[in-house]
Amino acid sequence: MVRLGHLLRNFRRKVYAGYIVPNLGKPKKLAQIPKWYRSMVEQTDWDKFVTYTQSKKFKYVYDHHLGRGGYTYLREKLVQNNELSIDEIPSRALMWRKARENKNGEYKNVVKDMADKFVSLTLNFSGFIF
Questions:
Q1: Is the pTM of this model over 0.85?
Q2: Among 81, 78, 80, 79, which Cα is nearest to 97's?
Q3: Region of residue 34 (left: phi > 0; alpha: psi -120 to 50; beta: else)
């Protein structure tokens, strides 16, 4: 089932990037299913998909600033800056927040709200042992 979920997501992204984005602002073109998908997709499902891709739910707003190094490089940088010890395993919340900081250590407004929630939850649960 996980594999099917990945395939469906990739299909949606491919259709979005290959057909929806080039035709933004052309409602007549977007109202029609592309001919290569007509055998697979019904018109009602297509209309829902086009509406969904135009909504805010479809847009991912939590972009990271890691570059090619990824989380491995971020962890090495945190160790170099003495924010982590060499043998310490960082929390996912810490890595998520640090990955979305810009060079000045600031967040976008949307990301800042989520980062603040992570900090407050981390502080609330720091005394518990699971």
A1: no
A2: 78
A3: beta
Q: Extract the tokens encoding 79.
A: 């160790």
**Going residue by residue through the chain (130 aa), what tens digit of pLDDT does each one get?**
788 888 988 888 888 888 988 888 888 999 999 888 889 889 999 999 999 888 877 776 667 778 888 888 889 988 998 888 888 888 888 888 888 888 787 777 777 777 777 777 766 665 555 4
* Domain residue ranges in the chain: 2-54, 67-125
- Using CA atoms in the order 70, 72, 78, 84, what is the torsion angle rounded to 10 degrees? 140
